[in-house]
Specification:
single chain, nine-stranded mixed sheet, six-stranded parallel sheet, binds nicotinamide-adenine-dinucleotide, alpha/beta
Length: about 450
């Protein structure tokens, strides 16, 4: 393959070559599971890991039956080296710059597990470079980034799995959707997603950047700011209060707070239920209330030295035909789905409600789960199953269970909740044109600026 294809212009120039080299020959029976394929062919998949933090390492352990981590990129050298030891016995190539992974012809599959503000750019570049990608949720920080990703995925035809692994929990969320799809709840009227709130903290001091961490590159597309950290002497918080590792999720600069961190999981299930129930239309408005640990001016935090995402919130998202979705911080973590004939509650621990109990007397049809799982093989459970699904879809060049298009549909809702929270007012939404109606300031949050040198080149 011609090297350094990372944008649309180069991709169009070389698309015939890229398509020829990147299409994976279909050597397997389409019903073979990924475990069967690996066993039969002793054929492991070389993978490049971009972002060697908590989730990147956890995911690579979940997929270890099928993949060899041959390259690792992280802007923190210490993390890069320690992942290399634990995942690859020190045999992987390590890089500070993930582009080095995208330039390699021997790597056809990459896993992106960087912080949220660093998802869209490498994902788009990876697709143009002909890689299939498992990218962590939420794929974007803004609605405009979602439009770009959908466009590039359609254009390149690359296989992209989103890290919303709840879709691959066959006894819980997948089964809940099968119950809905089989009409056991009747028409859905109301859903409630309880996702918890963000923590708050006092002002965090700016300290010396730890050796090995390329802070400028960690910030990447975001505005240049000092590195903040206050290690927690009690040891309760492993990372301390910081604007960097793990805690980036409590800063709007790098994340959407709980609204996208957990919203990406539970709102995804609620949206999947709606679609399985025949709802074709998107949301029309969002309103509610929220509390933040800092003051905001026109949607921008005034204090810049402490966590700023919403600590508590309750939003009502309205859909056509009087259907509504509540997204709130308080309550039992999970998703409540209420229909005309009954209601169910589903979480990472339980699936409950009268329509579920009724399955003992009146079970779902044999193929009910398979049908909601797009007819794809179902093996293992949760994280491993989600990886099995991705790797199977990479082999077979099929759309995985967590595709970018359904992800963007529901992530739009999470992002709208975030914009509403930041501005402290309700919003009306034109779903077809993906525009907020009659609110220029709110519309200015549909996209974000990129720091010079970190733009997305199309
Ligand atoms: N699916 C899930 O249930 C789940 C759970 C936890 C986290 N996540 C997602 O996984 C992602 C990572 O979260 P985490 O908790 O592992 O964060 P983390 O801070 O522990 O790890 C992120 C890593 O990415 C590295 N990084 C930053 N910029 C980079 C760049 N340009 N190139 C290469 N590496 C870079 C950081 O140095 C860090 O080591 C987030 O998007 C998060 O939402 C998903």
């Amino acid at each position: 393959m011609q090297k350094h294809v990372k944008n649309r212009r180069d991709f169009l120039k070389t698309s015939t070559a890229v398509a020829a080299v990147c299409s994976v020959p279909c050597l397997y029976r389409s019903t073979d599971s990924i475990s069967a394929i690996t066993r039969e062919k002793n054929d492991r998949i070389p993978i490049g890991l971009i972002g060697a933090g908590g989730m990147g390492n956890g995911n690579m352990r979940a997929a270890k039956a099928w993949v060899d981590v041959v390259a690792i990129a992280d802007v923190d050298q210490t993390r890069c080296n320690s992942s290399n030891q634990s995942l690859s016995n020190g045999k992987a190539d390590t890089y500070a710059d993930y582009q080095k992974i995208l330039d390699r012809d021997d790597i056809k599959v990459v896993h992106i597990a960087t912080p949220d503000h660093w998802h869209t750019k490498p994902l788009i570049e990876a697709m143009y470079a002909g890689k299939d990608v498992y990218c962590e949720k939420p794929l974007t920080l803004t609605i405009a980034e979602g439009q770009l990703i959908r466009q590039v995925q359609k254009e390149t035809g690359r296989i992209v799995q989103v890290g919303t692994q709840q879709r691959s929990t066959f006894n819980l969320f997948t089964k809940a959707i099968a119950v809905v799809a089989d009409g056991r709840l009747g028409k859905i009227k109301r859903m409630e997603c309880c996702i918890g709130g963000a923590p708050k903290c006092d002002a965090i001091p700016s300290i010396e950047i730890p050796s090995g961490l390329d802070w400028d590159r960690w910030l990447g597309p975001a505005t240049k700011v000092p590195y903040l950290n206050r290690p927690d002497a009690s040891g309760k918080n492993r990372w301390g209060n910081t604007n960097c590792h793990h805690e980036f999720r409590w800063w709007y600069e790098y994340s959407g707070g709980k609204l996208t961190d957990w919203g990406a999981h539970h709102v995804d299930i609620a949206n999947w239920a709606l679609k399985s129930n025949g709802q074709t239309k998107g949301p029309i408005s969002i309103s509610g209330k929220s509390e933040h640990p800092v003051k905001f001016k026109n949607g921008i935090p005034v204090e810049r030295d402490r966590y700023n995402t919403a600590t508590s919130f309750e939003f009502t998202v309205k859909y056509p035909d009087n259907v509504e979705m509540i997204i709130k911080s308080e309550g039992r973590n999970g998703v409540l789905i209420e229909g005309e004939k009954g209601r169910i509650f589903v979480s990472r621990r339980t699936l409950d409600g009268a329509p579920v109990k009724a399955l003992k007397q009146n079970p779902l049809p044999e193929d009910a789960l398979q049908n909601v799982y797009k007819g794809l093989p179902m093996e293992q459970n949760e994280r491993r199953a989600h990886w099995a699904n991705f790797l199977y879809c990479h082999r077979e060049q099929k759309e995985p269970i967590s595709d970018v298009h359904s992800h963007m549909q529901m992530l739009n809702v999470c992002h709208l909740a975030g914009i509403s929270a930041r501005l402290g007012r309700g919003l009306k939404w034109d779903d077809e044109n993906e525009q907020i109606i009659g609110d220029d300031i709110a519309n200015s949050f549909l996209a974000r600026p990129y720091r010079k040198g970190f733009e997305i080149n199309m």
